[in-house]
């Protein structure tokens, strides 16, 4: 059995692991002026350091805890875990044909850390107290992210230089990473609000609801069409799922807070999209693809998709994990001059499924889709049978990520990849917990 001291150590490392990375950045000065900000790699460094601190503490403690060892064995026997291991091993195999092997090592080091984290977190998050610590850490971190982003609408911050576009990407540097990161945790915040409401902690639930509304407003100002699409579809899923179960089981208690929050959030989101000119313009640019879907194939994302298919046709196992941007100049047979010239080169496919296809070939994409589809099916089945709003929102968060990955570079970024694997581990932990039936 673990002692209260070791439990506090695990809680501390877990909190830091999920609280710190979104906030980390490194600005640079020259002659008294801020001239650059590094947003991406400092987050990766923070994740790697904090992850292995947490994993060291976890493995040190778990060997003296028979119950957690039993859970660990169950996770090791889980067929989904086997498929995840097989996928990571397959990624290692694709690296043998990479043009730049160091780029593959860069990705594989992250996947190795995330594989270890997945196993440890599924074991630990079956204890509700550790899950709550994580949700509080993520939510607290994005309170700061959102506050900074909303402040930037009013006043620029000299040491947070935006990469380009909207001037309010907070500590994420650019509108797409900022929007995807906010969307990548907002349903987890709703899960936490649900928990507070069920426990009768109404002051915390109301405060959480106000934070969620602020995040929805911030998300709408970031002008990411992918995040608009994913948020709308996921909200439809949550509302439809909830109405079905309310009709079946007459469970309305949790909706006393969640209902008004979700309804107000949708209204705020829609109002900003209609009244905020930059957001309105982005929506209008998207409407044309619904009117004429064929236009998508000649857009930048459509071009990257078609050239990724070309990569996979020429290489059975793709061009190697982490090598899409490096190999793209060789395989840009369709519209080769789009986003490619002496001054600019496409670094990513602007769609994670397209990039996975180009880097790992059709076998890799199939493994990836089966892995994610299986996780989503498990989560939906679990939420359907248990109908706990906390579980439903975790599944909704997974769905939001899967939708994001259709049209944007989510898992190409280290922090977002980490956040995504965190959600996968949450679904795995909820599925494995004793109160749920396994398949």
Properties at a glance:
mainly alpha; 16 helices; 2 strands; 3% strand
Quick structural overview:
73% of the residues lie in helices and 3% in strands. It has 439 residues and is an all-alpha fold.
Notes on the protein architecture:
- Strand 1 (26-30) and strand 2 (33-38) form a beta hairpin.
- With 439 residues, the chain is an all-alpha fold.
- It has a two-stranded antiparallel ribbon with strand order 1-2.
- The chain has helices spanning 4-19, 40-62, 66-77, 79-94, 101-124, 128-154, 175-198, 202-221, 225-249, 255-275, 277-291, 300-314, 324-331, 352-386, 389-407, 414-432, and strands spanning 26-30, 33-38.
- The mean pLDDT is 88.
- The longest helix has 35 residues, at 352-386.
- The chain is 73% helix and 3% strand.
- The chain starts with a helix and ends in a 7-residue tail after the last helix.
């Amino acid at each position: 059995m673990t002692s209260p001291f070791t439990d506090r150590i695990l809680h501390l490392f877990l909190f830091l692991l999920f609280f710190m990375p979104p906030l980390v950045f490194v600005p640079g000065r020259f002659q008294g002026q801020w001239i650059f900000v590094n947003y991406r790699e400092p987050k990766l460094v923070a994740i790697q350091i904090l992850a292995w601190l947490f994993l060291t503490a976890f493995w040190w403690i778990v060997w003296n805890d028979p119950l957690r060892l039993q859970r660990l064995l169950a996770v090791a026997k889980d067929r989904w875990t086997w498929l995840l291991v097989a996928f990571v091993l397959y990624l290692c195999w694709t690296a043998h044909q990479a043009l730049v092997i160091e780029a593959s090592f860069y990705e594989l080091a992250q996947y190795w850390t995330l594989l270890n984290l997945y196993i440890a977190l599924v074991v630990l998050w079956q204890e509700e107290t550790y899950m709550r610590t994580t949700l509080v850490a993520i939510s607290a971190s994005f309170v700061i992210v959102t506050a900074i982003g909303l402040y930037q609408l009013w006043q620029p911050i000299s040491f947070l230089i935006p990469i380009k576009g909207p001037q309010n990407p907070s500590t994420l540097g650019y509108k797409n990473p900022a929007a995807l990161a906010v969307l990548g945790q907002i349903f987890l915040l709703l899960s936490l609000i649900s928990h507070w409401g069920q426990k009768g902690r109404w002051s915390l639930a109301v405060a959480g609801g106000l934070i969620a509304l602020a995040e929805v407003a911030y998300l709408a100002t970031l002008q990411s069409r992918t995040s608009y699409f994913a948020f709308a579809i996921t909200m439809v899923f949550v509302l439809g799922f909830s109405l079905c179960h309310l009709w079946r089981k007459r469970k309305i208690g949790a909706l006393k807070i969640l209902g008004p929050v979700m309804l107000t959030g949708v209204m705020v989101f829609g109002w900003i999209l209609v009244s905020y000119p930059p957001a309105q313009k982005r929506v209008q640019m998207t409407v044309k693809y619904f009117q004429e879907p064929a236009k998508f194939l000649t857009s930048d994302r459509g071009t990257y998709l078609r050239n990724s298919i070309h990569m996979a046709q020429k290489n059975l196992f793709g061009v190697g994990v982490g090598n899409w941007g490096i190999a793209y100049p060789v395989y840009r047979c369709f519209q080769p001059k789009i986003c490619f010239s002496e001054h600019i080169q496409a670094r990513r496919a602007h769609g994670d499924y397209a990039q996975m296809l180009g880097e790992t070939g059709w076998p890799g994409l199939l493994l990836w889709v089966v892995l994610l589809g299986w996780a989503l099916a498990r989560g939906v089945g679990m939420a359907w049978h248990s109908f706990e709003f906390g579980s439903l929102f975790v599944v909704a968060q997974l769905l939001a990520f899967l939708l994001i990955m259709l049209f944007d570079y989510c898992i190409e970024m280290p922090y977002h990849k980490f956040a995504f694997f965190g959600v996968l581990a949450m679904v795995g932990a909820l599925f494995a917990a004793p109160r749920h039936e396994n398949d």
